[in-house]
Design a protein that fits this description.
mainly alpha, two-stranded antiparallel ribbon
């Protein structure tokens, strides 16, 4: 923009106006913000506050996890789901006893199953509750009348047991007695090892012999008669005589294991030798390679 300032004279004597330029006008400022001004403005105190809140949330979550772990331990459940503490049985699956109908041969197994279940599941219950639980599985056959009389005696206070073991002993005497012993003895005399391993046979023999009335030398003689003849002969040849039934059990299991191991080794060697003979036969029976002869000309 030019501004009229003064007049000056020329050589011709005429006056001419003189224009002096003024300072340049700065460009108008834009109303839109610059890229730097458009960045969000954070206060450092606000950033610190967010970080503190996040740390407190993490600490709170860790404390809640610790509280849950402590509660689980108090309930009998350890780390990793392992069951510990006095309430271990309440977290395990235990088979209930089968219904007992008074058969003398089954009274021993029934009592064993009841003992196990009570120990694992009902040991915190009172003796009266334990006895009543056992009675719920006594039904049918000759047990109904006895069960009814027992319930009347318990309700009237005539029968009072200091422990469930005392009640189970009464149950055994009522339905087992001498008859159970006769049944077990007859079952023991029918046993045979046959194809069982000695470990399997001994476990079954112990189960039957427990209530059979056999003990001492008669029990040893019955055990010798029921095992396989080959092992029996080997046991009779030992230098040191065996006296107790436990010595017979240990020596019989050792001989049976050695015999079965030797049989497996012989079978392995036989298969190995048989495979070698078969390969040799295959090599000797290979057909001879064909030799092509020159074709003879046909007669004219």
């Amino acid at each position: 923009m030019l501004e009229y300032k003064s007049e000056t004279e020329t050589s011709m004597g005429s006056a001419l106006p003189v224009y002096i330029s003024s300072p340049p006008t700065p460009p108008p400022q834009s109303s839109s913000p610059s890229p730097i001004d458009s960045l969000p403005h954070y206060n450092m105190s606000q950033l610190n506050l967010h970080e503190i809140i996040r740390q407190q949330q993490e600490q709170l979550a860790a404390m809640q996890a610790q509280i849950q772990a402590l509660l689980a331990v108090q309930e009998g459940v350890g780390a990793g789901g392992a069951v510990t503490g006095p309430n271990v049985g309440s977290h395990m699956e235990v088979a209930k006893p089968a219904i007992f109908n008074g058969e003398a041969g089954r009274v021993g197994g029934f009592i064993t199953a009841c003992r196990l279940y009570i120990k694992m599941k009902l040991r915190e219950n009172t003796v009266e509750e334990q006895v009543q639980w056992v009675l719920t599985y006594v039904q049918g056959g000759s047990t109904d009348v006895w069960k009814e009389n027992m319930m009347d005696e318990l309700e009237s206070g005539e029968a009072e047991y200091k422990s469930v073991e005392e009640f189970l002993t009464c149950l055994r005497k009522e339905f087992g007695g001498g008859e159970e012993e006769l049944v077990k003895a007859a079952e023991l005399r029918k046993m045979e090892q046959e194809g069982k391993t000695m470990e399997e046979f001994i476990q079954e023999f112990k189960r039957v012999a427990r209530r059979s009335g056999y003990e001492g030398r008669p029990l040893v003689e019955e055990f010798k008669r029921r095992m396989n003849g080959g092992i029996r002969r080997k046991l009779m040849e030992v230098e040191n005589s065996l006296t107790s039934i436990e010595q017979w059990y240990r020596r019989a299991m050792a001989l049976d294991r050695n015999w079965r191991e030797s049989r497996r080794e012989e079978e392995r060697l036989r298969k190995k030798e048989g495979g070698g003979v078969q390969k040799q036969e295959q090599r000797t029976s290979l057909p001879r390679p064909l030799v092509w002869q020159r074709r003879q000309p046909l007669p004219q």
